Amino acid sequence: MNSLLIIALVFRIGVTIGYWKIFEKTGVAAWKSLIPIYSEFEIIKLVGKPTWWIIYIIIPFVNLFGYYIIILDLIRCLGRHSLLSQLAVLLALPVYLPVLGFNPNVKYIGTLDKLPVIKKSAVSEWTEAIGFAVVAATLIRWLIMEAYTIPTPSMENSLLVGDFLFVSKFHYGTRTPRTPIQMPLTHQKIWFTNIPSYADWVQLPTYRLPGISSVKREDVVVFNVPGMLENNWEQQGNPAVWVKYPVDLKTNYIKRCVGVPGDVLSIKDGVVYANGTALTLPPEMRFDYNVTSKSEISDRNLQKWKLTQGEDFTYAGSDNAGAHYNMQLTAAQADELKKTSFISSVEVEHFTEPDSRIFCYSKYSKWNQDNFGPLTIPKEGMKIAINDSTLALYGKTIVEFDHNSDAKLDSGKLIIDGKEVTEYTFKQNYYFMMGDNRHNSWDSRYWGFVPEDHIVGKAFFIWLSIDQYAGITDKIRWSRLFKMIH
């Protein structure tokens, strides 16, 4: 936070110096540049906008757009109309304003309505418009909102495959860019190709700008999944070609936070407990059920129950007892099936045997997806003794994600900077994430904690939802449009 305050202070000092010199050019008393908000009020008058525009400078988040609009208008009133000048405002404002202020050739021309009309070619206008739009969209995507698509059923039925949603960056505070050399509006690859969209020659330290809240239990969160396997899922059988992505370019996952730093988390018979208290079950969450029908279920009934083969159920065959299915159902769907005359049984799947795929599986923790923990989630400043059991739980996290430049596990010992460590203090917070489709979600139960510097944002609302299996007339799930995510 101290680093962020320093950045904010440096930004404001640069802007204030620019204001001071620009006000001197325009006849405005220079001392007014020293007063935040009031100085912007003077700029609003200089560009000729109505004085009520000051409202746009006061309202949080709206003020980001309002501020840059009046500054872009200001440089036009100083005779700067080029795309380069606009980009300088967006990318280097605390440097560019003083440059304009101290330049004796820069003069105040007048308010916007008095500016001379500048004729530009169509190519020039389109180039400037596209360039500005790309930069503005990049800034919005970084600071405010980013679009995201649900690709898998791990969050059903809270979120469905084909949901298009916006992820809020301002809730938890956006991260400063770690990988600056990157093609705008891309993630890992250039669109429609396998060509990397970035170069990792430069890696900057990551800071988080102030947000309006912290990650809370039961928040639906988008994050960069930590592990190498998860980031190379399509090549999981070929580790030789795995790519080690920078943190900010790791694959985005979306899950529900069930454990925050310092929580003691456990799962008993599929119910999640934090510090001994059972968490509220999401109303649309799903579990695996074994369903037996007197005969094969017709497509008409499956459609009525909104079940899609391969995504929501698999057919396990028939015998004398009837037709057997494995279905991922909500409690309401299970109750509906139980009341159906041709359904013989609907039994939730219970996992009792140890699962070697589970995170930190060892002789100390033979857990599975329904019975897990207790496990304390690391918190910044939390201190642990180093021994066989703590290394089984936290060793990978310490070595790979806790910002140690030279750390390794060697013969049951933790070695940092060439020295054995018998006690360790965590350097950042961690979270535990799970999908609402509890028996069909690859989540923290399998690959572990999510470091704080991997948090992207909070899932905010659904702006479009498309059912890929529906007919043309039913393709859009109208009831889900503009639905807030809880």
- Rg estimate, integer Å: 28 Å
Number of strands: 21
Shape: globular
Mean pLDDT: 90
- Counted by DSSP, the helix tally is 11
Report the helical percentage.
25-40%
Main beta-sheet annotation: 8 strands, antiparallel
Question: How does the helix and strand content classify structurally?
Answer: alpha+beta
- The low-pLDDT segments are none
Percent in strands:
15-25%
Please give the alpha-carbon distance between the first and last residues: 29 Å
Task: Report a brief summary of the structure.
With 486 residues, this protein is an alpha+beta fold.
Please explain how this structure is put together:
With 486 residues, the protein is α+β, with helices and mostly antiparallel strands. Among the domains are: 2-118, no CATH class; 286-348, Alpha-Beta Plaits, CATH 3.30.70. Helices cover 28% and strands 22% of the residues. It contains 11 helices and 21 strands. The chain has helices spanning 2-26, 38-47, 54-58, 62-77, 83-102, 122-143, 228-231, 299-304, 331-338, 388-401, 444-447, and strands at 145-149, 163-168, 220-224, 252-259, 264-268, 271-274, 277-278, 286-293, 313-319, 322-330, 343-348, 372-376, 383-385, 407-410, 413-416, 419-421, 423-425, 430-434, 450-451, 455-465, 483-484. The strands form 5 sheets. Strands 1, 2, 3, 4, 18, 19, 20 and 21 form an 8-stranded antiparallel β-sheet that branches. The chain has a 4-stranded antiparallel β-sheet with strand order 7-6-5-12, with no helix packed on it. Strand 5 (264-268) and strand 6 (271-274) form a beta hairpin. The longest helix is centred in the first third of the chain and has 25 residues, at 2-26.
